[in-house]
Specification:
This protein is of the alpha+beta class and 347 residues long. The chain has two domains: 2-90; 110-344, 2-Layer Sandwich (BirA Bifunctional Protein, domain 2), CATH 3.30.930. Helix content is 37%, strand content 22%. It has helices spanning 2-18, 22-33, 38-45, 53-87, 110-124, 138-141, 182-187, 229-244, 296-301, 318-324, 341-344, and strands at residues 128-130, 135-137, 161-167, 171-175, 194-203, 214-224, 250-257, 260-269, 285-294, 310-317. The strands form two sheets. It has a seven-stranded mixed β-sheet with strand order 1-5-6-10-9-8-7. Strand 3 and strand 4 form a beta hairpin. The longest helix has 35 residues, at 53-87. The chain is globular, with a radius of gyration of 24 Å. The chain starts with a helix and ends with a helix. It binds adenosine-5'-[phenylalaninyl-phosphate].
Length: 347
């Protein structure tokens, strides 16, 4: 039902923004909010839901209803204003105080909405959001994560280095290329068990349809006694079902990262064919991001005894998961940061 609501909301907003006259806005109002409208129908199904589901979905339906009503109000007002401005532009008085209904309603950026949703999903299972520096020492971004000195990610074609004095122990300063730089910082706090969710801006020298030079990652780190791959798999499945929908599945494939052993690449079933294979995904699966069991060398850098404790970590791109979410189709990731209001207003 949540997914259905998001689709209804996106659909309604784009129709409202495209409405050319008041007749069309009225038709849209009836389609969504009328006696037999899509939202009204959903409200009627609420009493049939279980006691647990009812309050959450009830407030969600109302929230969507309010968004549709507000967007309609603004569109109707804009259409009316255009008309009167066209009729008598000379009467336009810039000193006239604005009324409450003249205020334009904005909303949170698409990426901020995704960050909030991801945070809420992980909070439910006990992860705490933390924040670590975006301007970071090489030691936290690479050395403490078991990267050898000649690793290609350290090459300045991938990482932005900052002109600043090089520290004897921590090396040069850089714009962090991944949220994994928070792993050893979290371990060094000295509190176990760890259940961290680090969401931050990350930077790489990349720009094409699926890469932006600044993007966001969310990184999970769990460290404690007897943490196993099955815990990682359960967490991945929980996230995939909560964020993408109950009908989506996850799988892990062997991969390589310097700071996890074993390492995995995580895939989810395609939202179009649900794993059967289609033109979009070819084999039924889409790549989500990296994960693995924390490397013993990394635990040692964080002053944690790898004989006694183990852990898992995962790190994925916020913009990428957003693109992969059902109902949101973005064919160039860079549009998220292009200040294109027509695009942003849709969400
Ligand atoms: C990493 O950055 C690892 N730190 C992830 C990790 C964490 C692995 C913990 C194991 C344990 P990778 O370079 O594959 O891995 O990036 C992770 C995700 O960030 C990618 O799957 C993608 O979703 C996103 N990403 C990477 N580069 C960009 C970019 N330039 N623009 C947008 N998203 C990006």
């Amino acid at each position: 039902m949540e997914e259905k609501l998001i689709t209804i909301k996106n659909n309604a907003i784009s129709l409202i923004l495209e409405a050319k006259n008041l007749k069309e806005t009225e038709e849209i109002r009836i389609q969504f909010l009328g006696r037999n409208g899509e939202i009204t129908q959903l409200l009627k199904t609420l009493p049939k839901l279980s006691k647990n589901e009812r309050p959450k979905l009830g407030s969600l339906v109302n929230e969507v209803k309010n968004i549709i009503e507000d967007t309609l109000t603004i569109r109707v007002r804009d259409l009316k204003n255009n008309k009167s401005n066209n009729v008598n532009l000379s009467k336009f008085d810039i000193t006239e105080p604005i009324t409450e209904s003249d205020r334009k309603l904005g909303h949170l950026h698409l990426v901020t909405q995704a960050i909030r949703e991801i945070t809420a999903i992980f909070n439910e299972i006990g992860f705490t959001r933390v924040r670590y520096p975006e301007i970071e020492w090489d030691w936290y971004a690479f050395t403490s994560l078991n990267f050898p000195t000649n690793h290609p990610a350290r090459d300045d074609w991938e990482t932005f280095f900052i002109e600043a004095p090089v520290d004897e122990k921590k090396g040069p300063v850089l714009l962090t290329p991944h949220t994994s730089s928070g792993q050893v910082r979290e371990m060094k706090k000295g509190k176990l068990p760890i259940k961290m969710l680090n969401i931050a801006k990350t930077y790489r020298r990349q720009s094409d349809v699926s890469h932006t030079p600044m993007f966001h990652q969310f990184e999970g780190l769990v460290v404690g006694e007897n943490i196993a791959i099955s815990d990682l798999k359960g967490t991945l499945n929980y996230f995939v079902k909560s964020y993408f929908g109950e009908n989506r599945k996850s799988r892990i494939r062997p991969y390589h990262f310097q700071f996890t052993e074993p390492s995995f690449e995580v895939d989810i079933t395609c939202g179009v064919c649900l794993g059967k294979g289609c033109r979009l995904c070819k084999e039924g699966w889409l790549e989500l991001g990296g994960a693995g069991m924390v490397h013993p060398a990394v635990l040692k850098f964080g002053n944690i005894d790898p004989e006694k404790y183990s852990g898992f970590a995962f790190g994925w791109g916020v913009e990428r998961v957003l693109m992969m979410k059902e109902g949101i189709k973005i064919d160039d990731l860079r549009i998220l940061y292009s200040n294109d209001m027509d695009f942003l207003k849709q969400f």
